[in-house]
Amino acid sequence: MEANGEACVLNGGSNGTAPKSSLSAIKTYGKKKMTAEVCHDDSAPSVKAQTIDELHSLQKKKSRPSTPKSAAAAAGVFSVTEENRQKLQLQSISASLASLTRETGPKVKAVKQQQDYLTPATLNTSDSALKFTHVLHNLSPAELYEHAVKYEKSSFITSSGALATLSGAKTGRSPRDRRVVKDAAAAGELWWGKGSPNIEMDEHTFLVNRERAVDYLNSLDNVFINDQFLNWDPNNRIKVRIVSARAYHSLFMHNMCIRPSPEELESFGSPDFTIYNAGQFPCNRYTHHMTSSTSIDINLARREMVILGTQYAGEMKKGLFSVMHYLMPKRGILSLHSGCNMGKSGDVALFFGLSGTGKTTLSTDRKRYLIGDDEHCWSDAGVSNIEGGCYAKCVDLSTEKEPDIFNAIRFGTVLENVVFDEHSREVDYGDRSVTENTRASYPIEFIPNAKIPCNGPHPRNVILLACDAFGVLPPVSRLSLAQTMYHFISGYTALVAGTEDGIKEPQATFSACFGAAFIMLHPTKYAAMLAEKMMKFGATGWLVNTGWCGGRYGVGSRIKLAYTRKIIDGIHAGGLLNAEYKKTEVFGLEIPAAVEGVPAEILDPVNAWADKEAYRQTLLKLAGLFKKNFAVFASYSINGDTKLTEEILAAGPLFD
Ligand SMILES: Nc1ncnc2c1ncn2[C@@H]1O[C@H](COP(=O)(O)OP(=O)(O)OP(=O)(O)O)[C@@H](O)[C@H]1O
Ligand SMILES: O=C([O-])CC(=O)C(=O)O
Ligand SMILES: [Ca+2]
Ligand SMILES: [Mn+2]
Fold first, then answer.
1. Which of the ligands is closest to the CA of residue 506?
2. What span, in angstroms and rounded, lies between the C-alpha atoms of 532 and 542?
3. Is 359 a catalytic residue?
4. Is the pTM for the entire model greater than 0.95?
5. In a domain, 444, yes or no
6. pLDDT digits (tens, 9 = 90+) for 446-487
7. Which residues cross the membrane (predicted)?
């Protein structure tokens, strides 16, 4: 507290001169003399307003345009250009919200320009055509907070300043409701059929769902528009527009996509891809192909995605990731479901792994620069993050174990599905009452050592993370290139509860490229690109088990995060590369004899199991699952290189 002559100082000054006695302290008024022993509330000049309304109007300073304009604008041609620009932008937004099948649709009104209605209402053929929808375009986090708290029942501000909210009935993605339009081009290019995540849908059905979503959005008083970017590689940046009904969704995407500067927003133009998120509204179950009230529909030709029947925000993030998994490989760029960080000396590591295996946790590392936690591109120029934010699991989050993530949960962060104290608004991260899959979404700059812009040179280490519920994979093994490909294509883990709707318990899963739910092309396409890049740039592959140790799930326990961190430190430092190794039976994995800071007895899983026979049985069981899973890939060639293909086939588990 600052002591000055005007304030009432009840506890003495903070300048060390306060008298010892508290009674005399009450009478101390600092340096200036005070004439009375009471404080008057008219000691400051009065406000420059005659009425309360006038007073309120003083509170908000006009902030748009908020930054210096382009050179042309500064030269005086600004006013016309600015008007035209606003008009074009509104036309583009209005076109986004236009019905495709009717002559007229609802009118779109920009909230910042109350007079400017763009859609000419020539034929008012229905009540909906008379309706105005306010467009809230690229609102700031503070504005979105206010909307959320005011209009969304489940939104609250937590004690650390985050916006806590509920995603509704769905607290994870719905992969069985993810559809892709199979037109002639997509039929030839994409991966379809058994094992593919792309459930086919026809153009007409897509349009039915699109119309439903657009009509729903237009029936609302407000819709949120986010115009943002994907990919920090300036040559391969994609413009995306997200049209949504909830402030929560708008803030989530504000955090997750790359945020344009005011100048970039000014010249944004039309988006390359648009999401219509009408998540509160179901699809019509009588519509052809619909198997539930949820549908997430991607149309590559129209560059559009429609979301009906799920409010889980991860659908938007991962839907756009799917789009990148299509667009980038076409340009010779590999898209990756991986985390990525960089050491002080510029050594880059990629962290692959399915949901819950540790990409976010392990790429967020005090000693290194964070490039990104979940989605990257690897081009001839190096690596780049696709996103502008992180999406961390929060179950059991603690400041001791994950301090940077814990501290990132503050004003601006969206906290999904967490439980908090009604009064103190203190979050209880251990509480799984809503879901196990509680999440925090924050801009990447909330991590103190984020590398911005989020790109880096070619990776030196490629770390494959598996959360092995069987407890038989070693905590760390060094992989040959063929083994790296084998495990990349296999994409093994034991799914941790909750991220995919319907899965409640850990269970062994194989997901090609550590992200089969998001890939668009056949897995061997991505694998071939990874092999080529790893060879070309000399990266080393590693398999790290962040799962069980000393017995399977239920018997053993999860490997301590502190140990996994030591292992990762050893990989980054380079010391592990040339350590002393031995080969395990069955999987033929090379395991080091020692890792600094990790008990030697856990490095070879057989030592950690009390029941050696149970260990061997479990090992063979898992090896069998690997073999069975890989059988479907055995007939595909990787890179047209039959030698590598044979080596990959031989790099899997060997047993009778
Ligand atoms: N040994 C370990 N290594 C890594 N993570 C661990 C370990 N033990 C426990 N965990 C916990 O496992 C979870 C890993 O989740 P994380 O958010 O890193 O997953 P992810 O790979 O980023 O998944 P997603 O793609 O769904 O975001 C965290 O909650 C972390 O605290
Ligand atoms: O998309 C989500 O729901 C969370 C995530 O990162 C993943 O599952 O890989
Ligand atoms: Ca993550
Ligand atoms: Mn992910």
1. 1
2. 17
3. yes
4. no
5. no
6. 999 999 999 999 999 999 999 998 999 999 999 999 999 999
7. none
Give the residue ranges of DSSP H helices in 441-587.
481-490, 523-537, 561-573
- ipTM of the complex, rounded to two decimals: 0.97
**Count of structural domains, the chain:** 4
Query: What pLDDT band is residue 24 in, cutting at 50, 70 and 90?
Result: very low
Kindly state whether residues 534 and 596 are assigned to the same domain: yes
Pick the residue whose CA is nearest to atom 6 on ligand 2.
355
In this structure, the chain runs to a length of: 656
**Whole domain around residue 157: which residue ranges?**
140-167+396-435
Label residue 60 by pLDDT band (50, 70, 90): confident
Q: What CATH number should be reported for the domain holding residue 487?
A: 3.90.228.20
Whether residues 409 and 475 fall in one domain: no
Q: Are residues 233 and 296 in the same domain?
A: yes
Which one of 289, 305, 331 terminates a domain?
331
For strands 540-545 and 476-479, give the pairing: antiparallel
Per DSSP, the three-state class of 628 is helix
**Ligand 2, atom 8, residue with closest C-alpha:** 355
42-57 pLDDT per residue, tens: 667 778 888 888 888 8
- List, in sequence order, every beta strand (DSSP E) within 138-234: 156-157, 163-165, 178-181, 199-201, 222-230
**Residue 163 sits in the same domain as residue 179:** no
Q: Is there a single domain that holds both residue 156 and residue 85?
A: no
**615, 569: one domain:** yes
Ligand 1, CB cutoff 6 Å, lining residues: 353, 355-362, 373-374, 391-393, 395, 499, 546, 558-559, 561, 564
Note whether 145 and 263 are same-domain residues: no
Name beta bridge partners: 377: 335, 384
Same structural domain, 472 and 523? yes
Residue nearest to atom 2 of ligand 2 (CA): 314
Is 210 one of the catalytic residues?
no
